[in-house]
């Protein structure tokens, strides 16, 4: 929405380089079948997503709409439990403070924008994860593929589900209060 805050081409290139260099260097230095590689490469994908994500947050905005069946599905998959655990350790408070500090939009709209940015970044990270899993399978590294996928799900899919749960709650709240006033 704010064009001057979008990511510049150098940031996009830097993000891609970080992700690719860590994936390739780690493949040869650590080996794709070692769990440390899965963690290192996800760290690279995380930074890659942080640098590239803001340039894509405003494309295909309909993807941010949360369907009414999603919260129940995410709860069954344990996303609510993970969110509560992140509350207990203080991670969500840190993220909320970071979002408030960097967002120019006040209140709920700024917080919603932060969930969209986070979801976009994690989606990019998981897309890179999927590509790397495919490469590991094709090159006969099934153990590495499973480890990369597992760490990717924990570090990207659960945060996506949590962002969508939070956005659902925030966007549905006014609708509930309007119904009770009638």
What do you see in this structure?
With 182 residues, the chain is mostly helical. It has seven helices and no strands. The two termini are 34 Å apart. α4 crosses α7 (142-181) and α6 runs antiparallel to α7 (142-181).
* Average pLDDT reading: 85
**How many beta-strand runs?**
0
User: Unreliable runs, pLDDT <50, ≥5 residues?
Assistant: 1-6, 175-182
Q: What structural category characterises the helix and strand content?
A: mainly alpha
Question: Which series of helices and strands comes N to C?
Answer: HHHHHHH
The helix tally amounts to 7
Spatial separation of the terminal alpha carbons = 34 Å
The whole-angstrom Rg is: 18 Å
Largest sheet: none
What share of residues is helical? Answer: over 70%
Shape: globular
Determine the strand fraction and express it as a percent band: under 5%
Summarize this entry quickly.
By secondary structure, the protein is mainly alpha-helical. Helices cover 80% and strands 0% of the residues.
């Amino acid at each position: 929405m704010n064009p001057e805050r979008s990511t510049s081409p150098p940031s996009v290139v830097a993000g891609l380089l970080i992700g690719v260099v860590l994936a390739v260097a780690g493949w040869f230095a650590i080996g794709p079948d070692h769990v440390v590689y899965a963690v290192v490469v996800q760290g690279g994908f995380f930074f890659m997503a942080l640098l590239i994500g803001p340039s894509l947050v405003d494309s295909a905005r309909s993807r941010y709409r949360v369907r009414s069946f999603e919260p129940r599905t995410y709860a069954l998959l344990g996303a609510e439990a993970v969110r509560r655990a992140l509350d207990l350790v203080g991670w969500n408070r840190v993220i909320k403070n970071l979002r408030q500090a960097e967002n120019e939009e006040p209140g709920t709209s700024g917080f919603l924008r932060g969930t969209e940015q986070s979801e976009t970044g994690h989606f990019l990270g998981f897309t890179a994860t999927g590509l790397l899993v495919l490469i590991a399978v094709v090159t006969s590294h099934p153990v590495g593929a499973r480890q990369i996928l597992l760490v990717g799900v924990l570090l990207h899919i659960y945060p996506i589900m949590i962002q969508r749960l939070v956005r659902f709650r925030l966007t549905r709240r006014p609708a509930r209060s309007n119904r009770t006033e009638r």
